[in-house]
Amino acid sequence: MRYAYLGPQGTFTEAALRSLPDAAGAEQLPYATVPAALDALRRDEVDAAVVALENSVEGSVPTTLDELAMGDPLQIVSEIHLPVSFALLVRPGTGFADVKTVASHPHAQPQCRRWLAEHVPDAEWRAATSNAEAAQHVADGHYDAALAGSFAAARYGLEVLAEDIHDVADAVTRFVELRRPCAPPAPTGTDRTTVAAFIGEDHPGALLEILNEFAIRGINLTLIQSRPTGAGLGSYLFWMDFEGHVEDARVGEALMGLRRVVADVRFLGSYSRADQVRPEIRRGTHDADFTEAAAWLTAIRQGHPEP
Amino acid sequence: MRYAYLGPQGTFTEAALRSLPDAAGAEQLPYATVPAALDALRRDEVDAAVVALENSVEGSVPTTLDELAMGDPLQIVSEIHLPVSFALLVRPGTGFADVKTVASHPHAQPQCRRWLAEHVPDAEWRAATSNAEAAQHVADGHYDAALAGSFAAARYGLEVLAEDIHDVADAVTRFVELRRPCAPPAPTGTDRTTVAAFIGEDHPGALLEILNEFAIRGINLTLIQSRPTGAGLGSYLFWMDFEGHVEDARVGEALMGLRRVVADVRFLGSYSRADQVRPEIRRGTHDADFTEAAAWLTAIRQGHPEP
Amino acid sequence: MRYAYLGPQGTFTEAALRSLPDAAGAEQLPYATVPAALDALRRDEVDAAVVALENSVEGSVPTTLDELAMGDPLQIVSEIHLPVSFALLVRPGTGFADVKTVASHPHAQPQCRRWLAEHVPDAEWRAATSNAEAAQHVADGHYDAALAGSFAAARYGLEVLAEDIHDVADAVTRFVELRRPCAPPAPTGTDRTTVAAFIGEDHPGALLEILNEFAIRGINLTLIQSRPTGAGLGSYLFWMDFEGHVEDARVGEALMGLRRVVADVRFLGSYSRADQVRPEIRRGTHDADFTEAAAWLTAIRQGHPEP
Amino acid sequence: MRYAYLGPQGTFTEAALRSLPDAAGAEQLPYATVPAALDALRRDEVDAAVVALENSVEGSVPTTLDELAMGDPLQIVSEIHLPVSFALLVRPGTGFADVKTVASHPHAQPQCRRWLAEHVPDAEWRAATSNAEAAQHVADGHYDAALAGSFAAARYGLEVLAEDIHDVADAVTRFVELRRPCAPPAPTGTDRTTVAAFIGEDHPGALLEILNEFAIRGINLTLIQSRPTGAGLGSYLFWMDFEGHVEDARVGEALMGLRRVVADVRFLGSYSRADQVRPEIRRGTHDADFTEAAAWLTAIRQGHPEP
């Protein structure tokens, strides 16, 4: 197995990749941008790719969404939730008093603002392209400290001076493992499905129509994002994550409904939820209910309404 | 063929029955009440029955709805629209000045109120069980005139003294032809389907849920009536007529949805509309759209999203 | 006080009228038809009128709905629920073996069918314009027994041979007390409101639009009936009863919404429910929630979003 | 006037700021991160701030949304649409053949991928914290070329070697001008309103409930994004942009409805749309319709239903 990921080494994305069971012993190839990692997968240079999807400290969310929705098709086969936990990395021997400069990706600094103001109030912040690059700069002696995951310390020969220094507890970044289009993994009972629905013309009320397809079948959405498609004003797509698996009858019928009402829909995968949340299946929407209803319809069409 | 109908002879219901192509030469049996006519059909004493469903001058609507929704199953196979047109029937030789009493079903009198006040202002009104019975009373010499359809004149040896005397133009009564449960007549493109949906417990929002099953598939309702089922407070049924035929994909899926969300549903027939109104089929709800969406679902479930 | 009601004396409607606290000692005037009773009220000949609205054994429902929705305006100020309970009335001295004919309104016979088949299997049924008229016919010696409320016995010098002979238990007829348009009675906390909403042109989806106005404010419908208006095909009205009082903020806003989305709406009254059912008021729809939201809106319009 | 913006000088954000009429002659202060720019406004160090909201090549969107929705309140008073147009900036005298390295923000490189592969196929890409920083690196001689807006050339003493080199035409970035909370600018007829709605507990169906508040009043959404609030699983907010101004009656009532149904809602501003699109106002939702409906409600509450 060869995995592509958004590098460089030492990023949260690499940590997410390393948490995958199949990643142990696999080849792990860092790419400089999300599109580069995905193209490597599309060109068959790797077998899978791991990129951030939601709430990333590395800021790659809109790029990932747009690439998956509009680039050559790929498919999500699993997801990884990684707690956001920043550490202050320094060269061995550096103490708090020595920290005059702190480097990080611009998205990391605001997340540690309060801690920095309290513990290294006089340190100046310096921007880096990624937190891993910031760690490299510290290792190179350009800056005194870097904000990064503690897992990055060993990779760059640095030490953890302080841990868990981010201001908001319980932040989580969501990553996805991508493959080339394939049959989805088998349902687990705690599945999520992702689609991108395209609204071709200015179609007010399209969102309500779409949501109704899910609502009448008792399917909860867990994420929704509207994005312009770049094909002119009023041309939108909705990225939607929802509970259930494409093999579930209620999900299948909702997807067919979606297919019928929007200009286009791209299936982006059914996969086990990282948080293992089991959906509450509403009365009348179990697979057995769909089977029973289909049998009843057949009976009345044939003139035998009461079996 | 033997037909049951709500009698006696000379009612609008008999006129409706006579308008059926198959009724010519068939045996036509009047029954005193709607339940009696339907029971005759259930017991195989007749092959079909004709009763009023909507807006009847004979007042049988709630009885018909409740009998069809809750009695032993029967099925609508065709409908008849009959313009409501009252005539003033008298014994031969009677003139306006001779009319001192006018008899009719209590529902007929209000529909001719203004005309009666203008043309026979001094006549007193007398109630009869049906307009046909009123005609019989006139023939028997008990009253001077009867409000009834002009077709009843010949039957009772009466004359039409005035025609089209009802106050509201364009009123129509809707009758249905019933059979024992059977395969529905083939779709004509201008079909109507009737169901009764039962709401078992106090289920606020049930109606909205039901309507959404139709709305998301672009199916228009043409009649809706809530009726208590007699099984306790909060136990309701909705009688619903809507556009389309049970063979239509959009109707089939809506019916299955209905079946899944309500306590029970009874299919009451798909049949050609008397008014020949062709439904506008919304984008994405043609049979071909359902077929295409099902093929797409199969493809993505098998891992071939782009055929 | 003078009350009009659908006569003759001895009907369920008279029994409903007599159950009103204000009816004791008031003048009670029977009218031959529902429109006649309502016109008497419109012309100021009486101060109030009592007519059946729902599930009547006397069959007057469609007439009542249409008269109130489309005739000169009247307003519901209270409602009465009367259990449907039939008795077999006979002349004193008549025994079961003597009953060869049973008379009633055509709607009453089906409701007692099973009992009649069991207890007087050989008796023939005769139609009457009302159950009270049937009782009069029995008193006059034309028939042997009448189906009617037991309260009618005394009025016609008859005896109750058997009581509670209707087949379905717990049937209830709903009557309403009408006045000329007036300020509604004060809210009681267990109120119902009635309106007629007119759909002017063929406006598919109108019903869903209407129901949404109620649903988003957590208001449950207790009755809905579509009725043709007589103004041409596709011109409908919806008669709707729902929980709450016009003085309630959620009801007021829903009514304004209704007013805005339909061709016309007629307010038919807010009044205490006969069954005293207290509505569950959904989170966010109490009067206080509307007041708070209005204060917030004022604040943000003025530039003081956080008070 | 003092303006904060996301720096450094030469970014698209600075170009957006410069397009504001009031910016001419105003003090313009670059900040290293979006939170830093917004905090400067909150602390009164500046009078306004300009940041990217949507589809930014600088990748700041999630940060901006979260800061505005959850940080100390600020308010949008205008928006700016800037066409995305990249140029290749070089030191004077550099030709295509001399370009061995190209630097840019990681989000810029994918947008120019095809052009780069065609015109400078052998150049290696280098990441920078911003395109402006990349330009500075070129000016310093570290790299040969930078991807940036052509407006950045003069600022860094560079030349435009090629213009309009991005692969997707018509891409637009949307920026907003922020102030401390204030009375919104007067309606223009082509307004947009922005809110953040908080869903406190796991409340499936919340989104549908919210959308219905807008839909029944004919208000179209132009952007929707769900975002976790960081307050635990299932705690979400919806960032929503929609047509209309808080002073419009339909918008006011929808906002009050939103206020009542969600855990909390933050008003983020009503302001003129940069694209000047005028909304279609649905039948029944003009200000005059709300005024008429309110007058009607008052009349029926007082007992004068027909004025």
Summarize the structure in words:
Chains A, B, C, D: It is an enzyme of class 4 (lyase). Chains A, B, C, D: Keywords: Amino-acid biosynthesis, Aromatic amino acid biosynthesis, Lyase, Phenylalanine biosynthesis. Four copies of one chain form a homotetramer. Chain A is α/β, with parallel strands linked by helices and 307 residues long. The first copy, chain A, is 29% helix and 29% strand. Chain A is built from ten helices and 14 strands. Chain A has a five-stranded mixed beta sheet with strand order 2-1-3-10-4, with helices on both faces. Chain A starts with a strand and ends in a 5-residue tail after the last helix. At the A-D interface, helix 2, helix 3, helix 8 and strand 12 of A face helix 2, helix 3, helix 8 and strand 12 of D.
Outline of the structure:
Chain A is α/β, with parallel strands linked by helices and 307 residues long.
Q: Tell me, what's the shape of chain A?
A: elongated
Helix/sheet category of chain A: alpha/beta
What pair of chains forms the biggest interface? Answer: A-D, 51 and 51 residues
How much helix is in the residues of chain A? 25-40%
Return Rg of chain A in Å: 23 Å
Instruction: Kindly state the number of beta strands of chain A.
Output: 14
Strand order of the largest sheet of chain A: 2-1-3-10-4
What about the largest sheet of chain A? 5 strands, mixed
- Give the terminus-to-terminus CA distance of chain A: 54 Å
In percent, how much strand structure appears in the residues of chain A?
25-35%
Please, how many helices of chain A? 10
